[in-house]
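Standup notes
- DV: blocked on the single-chain target, sequence here:
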Amino acid sequence: MSDQHDHESDHEPAHGHGHGHGHGRAEGGRGGIGAVLGRIGHAIAPHSHDTSDKTDSALEASDRGMRVLAVSFAVLMVTAAVQAVIVAASGSVALLGDTLHNFADALTAVPLAIAFSVGRRAADRRFTYGYGRAEDLAGIVIVLLITASAALAGYEAVRRLLDPQEIRAVGWVAAAAVIGFAGNEWVARYRIKVGKEIGSAALVADGLHARTDGFTSLAVLLGAGGAALGFPVVDPVVGLLITIAIGFVLRDAAREIYHRLMDAVDPALVDDAERILATVDGVRRVESVRLRWIGHALHAEVEILVDHDMSVVAAHKVAVEAEHRLIHDLPRLRAATVHTDPDGPDGADHHASLTAHRDP
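- DV (later): unblocked, structure below
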């Protein structure tokens, strides 16, 4: 196994180091095309114990995500186009709001596709953690698109309340509502299923967004029913209700992106990591666990305490095993850096020179 760092002979016994699989030096005898492919593989999947398998898995996940986006984009654009034709023929504000929302939902595939594509690029000396954060930037674009669709739908609903107009082709409006629900529900199931399988929170969130759009499409049926019963005012009122529903989706999407940008994780993941580390032979105590999402991959930095009488080699072995356990047992974790500190002797402060430099 190759190591990330050279272990200098003047290291104190049992004082560990950051260690991350896949960032080490190429083994002797490995050169030419093999070395280049190896470096590319390590950059894409840094913790792999089998670089080629991990690289293939990462590329396959990105390819699946791109296929989902392409198919769902096509389905939603066709759905919205059909609805737009009926909007022009009927003048339904509720259906207009739903159509605008479906167009916006289809367009969210564009920034996500760009993010998946950019995220495949290997880490370099400027972007040392890679380009996975492109997914978070795509999330900001998605939030802006949802905001625009909500504002336009609300404007049209208020305008129609102030200037009521008769709705035509009520039956077609109802049919368009059903089409909108069917298209969104199919896309929602597809995005959520694949998003969970490849570990893309953004894709899962976009699938939940599509599901919400499906239910707002069903709300258009209320407007059509009101018009059929001689109450055309129901249509703009439903349009306002749809705008409010889009606002709730906007709130949830903005919160999700905010959490990602602030490196928030589910506390249960930290608990799981601590439990995994506690089962590793040689780990006396888990000092700290820090996790963050970079795109749809989870990264970890942990500090563990080991016996102060351990040799550097023995402490390194514990660190490697701790990293190995984390990568295999913590879902979606692709990179882990493990730092070992000596536990003892009593009264010893192995970080005394750093105390003044640490945050209070």
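- Follow-up: The longest helix spans residues 51-90.
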